[in-house]
Amino acid sequence: MRIQEIEFRLKDGRSAVLRCAGPEDVEGTLHYLRVSAGETEFILRYPEECDKYTPEGELAFFERFNDSPTDVMLLCLVDGVVAGNCHIAFNSTIKTRHRASVAIALMSEYWNLGIGTKMFEVMIRLAEERPDVTQMELEFVEGNHRARHLYEKMGFRITGVKPNAFRLKDGTMLNEYSMIREIKR
After folding, report:
1. What are phi and psi for residue 53, nearest 5 degrees?
2. What residues contact 54, with CB distance under 8 A and at least 6 apart?
3. Which one of 23, 80, 175, 180 has the fewest beta carbons within 10 angstroms of its own beta carbon?
């Protein structure tokens, strides 16, 4: 699903844009995926796992999102650089169409600038515009205190834990926490 481009000001005064991805974003997105995967253990992949992503595959991925009636993926660009992305997926089956799943990631140099908050404001607005949606859902990895703080600030609460959901290269096991944000109607 496509939405209108959103321009906003970062805490450091720079301008940023949230928009749907296009062909001009392929290389920047591939770079973003690889860099962000190496900056923290809380991303779901390691940098070498990004080698499977190709320009053709990313372009097809963008097109699937842009043409989807139920999913929105937005890139955040700062000075023309892909800083991060967010995604909201609306369920379409009768029993689950009240639920929307969200995800977000940013390269570390763009943390603490207000991007995550803005991304969530947009995703919350999109969910609130759908009368059937009564809750938003997400997951985060144990130890990701920055993400948990943001999610709680945006109205999410922990609803469950999946023990040992992630296994790091050194063998460390980390839990995954589920959160929801109820949409009051």
Report:
1. -80, 130
2. none
3. 80
Question: Cα 36 vs. chain centroid, distance in angstroms?
Answer: 12
Contact partners, residue 51, CB within 8 Å, separation at least 6: none
Element (DSSP H or E) covering residue 175: strand 173-182
Q: Where are the domains of the chain?
A: 6-130
In contact, 179 and 158? CB cutoff 8 Å: yes
Amino acid at residue number 38: G
Between CA 102 and CA 179 the distance in angstroms is 10
CATH fold group of domain 6-130: Aminopeptidase (3.40.630)
Q: What are 71's strand-pairing partners?
A: 89
- Residue 109 CB: number of other CB atoms within 10 A? 12
As given in the structure block, the two tokens for residue 70 are: 């139920």
The dihedral built from the CA positions of residue 13, 15, 19 and 23, taken in this order, carries a sign that is negative
